[in-house]
Amino acid sequence: MAVTAYHHFRYSIEQYYARITPYERHLLLSTLQAFTRAMDAYNLTYFLYGGSLLGSYRHHGIIPWDDDVDIMMNSSQKELIKKALGKKSPDYELDIPPSGQWKFYYTHMHNLLNRNHRWPYVDMFFFEENSTHIWDEVPEYGKTFIFRKNKVFPLRNRPFNHLMVHAPCNPAACMNGYTEEICVASSYSHKEETPLPVYKWVTVPCDKLKFRFPFIQRTQFDDGAWNESLVNNTKLIHTIITPKYC
């Protein structure tokens, strides 16, 4: 999950090309679907987080130049999560490192050097909570990624490519560190688990990319509901109506 907007003097559209093939994207989304079905079967809490929440909010799916999925979960449910995801073996497995994010991954792809997991995977983050707020349990993220519960719950489904996935009831209030109007190229390859060269860490206004990638055009109705139209250059792909934010 990228949390920093990197700036570089050299802008190139090449840094925003898709880093995965259509088939790899299909496998990534299939991994997400297997994950959500397992969570739903046990009635566990999960929702789009970080770059994936931004992707749903801005593109109705994976950010076109991204290569993983970020999901937030309740840290108090870890044992049930293990049980639920264990039923997806052998096609999918769960990697639990000593620290950092868990990975739910598809087992039939290539090995990653010095890693226990494979790609594609769902990056699993966990929140701690009190009576009013939730926050990322990872210390380096917890001070930035802290949200009021009444801006997160009750969860609502949002488009994520061809899927509908749980998301905060006020997505705009839960994207700390991300800006809808600024497009940040990837600084890390999850597919290879390696940082990308510094010259690829570019940041541009999203308006410069709307001729190439689909973006949401959003208008609000008098009752507070939202009209979200996915537009690729000037071509309308689809339109949905989402409820008033909480």
TrEMBL record:
Name the InterPro entries for this protein: LicD/FKTN/FKRP_NTP_transf, LPS_cholinephosphotransferase
Which residue ranges does the record assign to the LicD/FKTN/FKRP nucleotidyltransferase domain?
Answer: 41-87
Domain of life, per UniProt, equals Eukaryota
Q: Name one GO biological process term.
A: glycoprotein metabolic process
Question: Do you know which Pfam families this protein is assigned to?
Answer: LicD
Please identify the protein, giving its name as recorded. Answer: LicD/FKTN/FKRP nucleotidyltransferase domain-containing protein
